[in-house]
DNA-binding response regulator
Amino acid sequence: MTDIRVLVADDQELVRTGLRTILDAQPGITVVAEAADGGAAVAEARRVRPDVCLVDIRMPVLDGIGVTRALAGPGVDDPIPVVAITTFDLDELVYDALRAGARGFLLKDAGAALLAEAVRAAARGDALIAPNVTVRLLEAFAAPARTAPSPAEPLTERERDVLAAVARGRSNAEIGTELHLSLSTVKTHLASLMSKLGARNRVELVIWAYESGTVGR
């Protein structure tokens, strides 16, 4: 199996070196490029075409939100998965990065296992949000001024149950156990939710859940 190729973008050399060291030590993951600012990150990502970009939120030239929007935002024909990283969990820029198309976010002190899992999740088309900050961040910044679009079709009661579980950071297997559903049924409900809500991934499902009030703020 081919290794997951990763680009690391952070304006601090020490942080980039640390992330590279951690990721290169993980089986099946290889860091193939680095960038010290957002403009270089976009250019390098388009040149190298990594499988995943690990992008710091706060960078010179172009911040992580701009990088995310350029590489994975709405309207990008061939998006590259982006995972946003930040030092501060209560940082509205992280929320905005998710809205711009990021597949998830982590704190820089997340640890090797969670960092590797976030990269693997993004590479397979899934998303991972640091479980210890998911609810706090989205509750803090899913402000009433942000209005969720109406679903294309009404959600069923079971779909709402699945959506609430996703918003709590549950995996497909955990959702199945909690709701007494098979894994294939969970996947069917998730596909239906994404279709009805126009969501591209789990992150957008979580954001819609908070913006719509489906789960409490």
About this structure: DSSP finds ten helices and six strands in the chain. The radius of gyration is 17 Å.
